[in-house]
Design brief:
The complex is a heterodimer of chains A (198) and B (623). Chain A is an alpha/beta fold. Chain A is built from 8 helices and 6 strands, in the order βαβββαβααβαααα. Chain A has a single domain (2-197), classed as Pyruvate-ferredoxin Oxidoreductase, domain 3 (3-Layer(aba) Sandwich). Chain A has helices at residues 15-28, 75-80, 102-105, 113-123, 131-138, 144-153, 162-172, 176-197, and strands spanning 2-10, 33-36, 47-55, 69-72, 90-94, 125-129. The longest helix of chain A has 22 residues, at 176-197. Chain A starts with a strand and ends with a helix. With 623 residues, chain B is of the alpha/beta class. Chain B has 21 helices and 22 strands. The chains are: A alpha/beta (198), B alpha/beta (623). Chains A and B meet through helix 1, strand 2, helix 2, helix 3 and helix 4 of A and strand 1, strand 8, helix 10, helix 13 and strand 20 of B. Strand 2 of chain A pairs antiparallel with strand 8 of chain B.
């Protein structure tokens, strides 16, 4: 078994927390796992990328074209990781842009969210979700990363059950009620779409 | 707290850095010191967390730990502990060893008693550093034995063994990691935590006073010890051949071992791997045998071609006819860090086979970059805004190491030159004599204590006409909010005497000193104007806690965080908030209106002072 996941987002959106929760769930399930994190200066509002590799792996970074899944807390950051993706890669991303201040001072615009999503769609399999809205419904925007974990748990890619992941969230995060609601809202949203397809 | 409570034999998902701390506990560590620096910080932070956790439970803390004033002091303290017979460790980032190098070079001559480990965490690719120097050269430079882990489990195991090796040789030992070892989480199987001793005893010996005659006597002793070290390296379990068959040999160390293993699988080829973990002294016989058995060798090591050059020397000395591929052959770079893309591509080229990695997805869209920025609500932004408004056009802004270095970005552009910790003030002195320009330099509070004070003394003594700013946000923010000599708690959570920066500066003889709250823009600008008018060295202390800590405290007290919004009826689109103040929570919406992203706003409210039309208002609070 081998599973390569790339987590992306903006520093401060809880990408590191997501990575460590997935990593611990793998450990609990007896699966070998390596998680590569970014700390320090790279964290202050900049692009953040974490990689998680599970199964028969010896090094922490995901090779180009080799990600099984990209999860992003911000649409532009999902597209930034597109060189890690191939046709079969699932890209799960939030749709709320965080516009970097560079667009004000450099000659590059933030593309429209639709354009970004189309670009991802053209390359691989896109699942978009408004994690901000669900997080607010759960009780706090700070839980948006947990909404995405709930959604990820519903797309049948993780080699462990969603209960293990939720248990890890409840065991290690503060605001247990908000985070449990956030997880369930994210998960239900994807399950509902699956049911609609059927 | 798992890392201390988990039982031997259990497995935990640990950062390489956390694994090092656990390893030290399993070696019965007595003493640990540091100055924080990414990517090394979590080693020390874990000691600190364990100490505070045990204290809160009313339990005995089995070691002494401190965040020292700088790396040199940290190493000197740890050397004293070692010479008292205690097991001690100092951890720092790669450039930290430059600061500690004066102590390090001669400590090698003196040697150690209790096992002494110097952890250097290198940063290939400069994820969070001002250079990507290869500290393996320090092991060669100072004649220190060196271990290099290739994954978190090995980081733990090597730390345990490192203390034994150090004691056996009587030499301090370098444990060298890189960002991808320090900041990779992996599964680590734990061993038993050993009892520590806590107190040692210093036995006098004239050979520890390194006057020239003693130094001359100690140097050959050091070289003899390194001969013994080479014997240990030859039979170390960290130097081994991973047999996969085939005529190709790969020599790798550190994270490159993992890249080698995964690349072979991606490429579907066979090769034996000589995995080197005890890398100084290099096991010459073992390397010689490996090169005799493989006619083609690929060397995988990030940054400098150190193993590569040593293998070439060994091959030359032993008369081995072997082809060695690496950096000199042009297949690998001395720049940045490696990854699977680079290693697979390099091996493919050397072997003349097709690179089997799929081309990744592509986009023709030009994506705006997202470099790290000072957080919304950061008090440094307010300090910079005021300093800029106060200073004439041509003012030079020497900067320093910390969050505030990010003030180099537009619109503030308040950082003109940077060398190292403390360099802002030294360079301010230099510019004041070398030019007729005005100078305002910036350093953080932790940096002031670390390396800022000597240059202020220089400014006073020579009457250098410059403004030196201390951005005092009450913490060592960039590396994860560690305490420093100006805060009132130690790394072990005990009360400490907080050293008052203003008193220190006055004590140094600076005549113009003002402490201001930078979130009061008017007062802050006034202080900078007066400081610029003052003839001679002037110091402005901008004192306001880091917004992340301020908001954490608010949440703890159950208070909300203020939410600000732009009143569109009052906004005249002067753009001062977005184009001069530049808080990243501001953005232009699709209609060109200025808005505040409430997900980002930290509620400092300084922008409301910046707006000349009173268009920025507090509209509520959020959790």
């Amino acid at each position: 078994m081998k599973l390569d996941i790339v987590l992306a987002g903006v520093g401060g959106q809880g990408v590191l927390t997501m990575a460590s929760l997935i990593g611990r769930s793998a450990l609990r399930s007896g699966i070998n796992v390596l998680v590569s994190e970014i700390h320090g200066m790279a964290q202050r509002g900049g692009s953040v990328r974490c990689t998680i590799r599970m199964g028969n792996v010896n090094s922490p970074l995901v090779a180009k074209g080799s990600a099984d899944c990209i999860v992003s807390t911000e649409p532009l950051e999902a597209l930034r990781e597109i060189d890690r993706a191939n046709r079969d890669t699932i890209v799960l991303t939030d749709v709320n842009p965080v516009v970097p201040p560079t667009v004000i001072f450099e000659d590059v615009d933030y593309p429209s969210v639709e354009t970004i999503l189309d670009e991802i769609r053209r390359n691989c399999r896109l699942i978009e979700i408004d994690a901000n809205e669900l997080a607010k419904k759960a009780g706090g925007i700070i839980s948006k990363n947990v909404v995405l974990l709930g959604a990820l748990s519903a797309i049948d890619i993780l080699p462990f059950s969603h209960e293990i992941l939720l248990e890890e969230i409840r065991r290690t995060l503060p605001y247990k009620d908000i985070n449990t609601r956030a997880f369930n809202l994210g998960r239900k949203e994807i399950m509902r779409r699956k049911d609609e397809k059927r | 707290m798992e890392i201390i409570d988990a039982k031997p034999g259990e497995t935990l998902l640990l950062l390489g850095n956390e694994a090092i701390t656990r390893g030290a506990l399993e070696a019965g560590i007595d003493f640990a010191t540091t100055y924080p620096g990414t990517p090394s910080s979590e080693i020390a932070d874990t000691f600190s967390k364990i100490a505070r956790y045990l204290k809160a439970k009313g339990k005995d803390v089995p070691f002494y730990f401190e965040y020292s004033t700088n790396e040199k002091v940290a190493l000197e303290i740890s050397a004293a502990a070692s010479l008292s017979g205690l097991r001690s460790l100092t951890c720092m980032k790669h450039v930290g060893l430059n600061v500690a190098s004066d102590a390090f070079m001669t400590f090698m001559y003196v040697g150690c008693r209790g096992g002494n480990i110097i952890v250097t965490a290198d940063d290939p690719g400069c994820h969070s550093s001002q250079n990507e120097q290869d500290n393996r050269y320090y092991a060669i430079f100072g004649n220190a034995p060196m271990l290099e882990p290739s994954n978190p489990q090995e980081a733990k195991d090597m730390t345990v063994d490192a203390f034994d090796i150090s004691e056996e040789l009587g030499l301090p030992l370098i444990l060298r990691t890189t960002t991808r070892i320090s900041h990779t989480r992996g599964i680590v199987r734990l061993g038993r935590i050993k009892r520590s001793r806590r107190k040692g005893r210093f036995e006098k010996n004239p050979f520890m006073v390194t006057v020239p005659s003693v130094a001359r006597a100690r140097h050959p002793v050091l070289l003899e010890k390194m001969k013994e070290a080479e014997k240990l390296s030859e039979r170390s379990r960290y130097n081994k051949i991973i047999e996969r068959g085939g005529g190709l040999g790969i020599v790798a160390s550190g994270v490159s071992v993992g890249y080698a293993l995964d690349s072979l699988e991606i490429l579907g080829i066979q090769a034996d791997i000589l995995k080197l973990g005890f890398t100084n002294p290099i096991p010459r016989e073992m390397c010689g045998r490996f090169m005799e058995e493989h006619k083609k060798i690929i060397v995988l090591e990030e940054l400098e071609p150190i193993l590569e050059n040593r293998l070439k020397t060994i091959a030359h000395d032993l008369g081995i006819d072997v082809e060695i591929f690496g950096k000199d052959s042009g297949h690998f770079s001395r720049l940045y860090e490696y990854n699977l893309d680079i290693v697979v591509e390099g091996i493919s080229k050397i072997l003349g086979v097709e690179n089997p990695l799929p081309e990744g997805g592509k986009t023709k869209l030009k994506l705006p970059s997202r470099p790290p920025v000072m957080c919304p609500g950061c008090p440094h932004r307010a300090s910079y805004y005021s300093a800029k408004r106060a200073s004439p056009r041509d003012t030079i802004y020497p900067t320093d190491i910390g969050c505030y270095t990010l003030g180099r970005s537009p619109p503030l552009k308040m950082a003109d030159v940077l060398l190292c910790m403390g360099s802002n003030a030294g360079m301010a002195c230099g510019f004041s004599k070398a030019t007729d320009q005005k100078i305002i330099s910036f350093m953080g509070d932790s940096t002031f204590f670390h390396a800022g004070i000597p240059a202020i003394i220089d400014a006073v003594h020579h009457n250098h006409d410059c403004v030196i700013t201390i951005l005092d946000n009450r913490t060592t923010a960039m590396t994860g909010h560690q305490p420093h000599p100006g805060t009132d708690l130690t790394g072990m959570g005990e009360p400490a005497r907080a050293i008052d920066i203003e008193q220190v500066v006055r004590g140094l003889g600076v005549e113009y000193v003002r402490t201001v709250d930078p979130t009061d823009l008017k007062e802050c600008e006034k202080a900078f104007r007066e400081a610029l008018d003052f003839k001679g060295p002037a110091v402005v202390i901008c004192k306001h806690p880091c917004i992340l800590i301020e908001n954490r405290e608010r949440r703890k007290r159950g208070e909300g965080i203020p939410v600000y919004q732009v009143n569109q009826e009052r906004c005249k689109r002067c753009n001062r908030c977005i184009k001069e103040f530049g808080c990243p929570a501001f953005y232009f919406d699709e209609d060109g209106k200025i808005r505040i992203n409430e997900e980002l706003c930290n509620g400092c409210g300084v922008c409301a002072q910046v707006c000349p039309f009173g268009a920025i208002e507090k509209v509520g609070e959020r959790r």
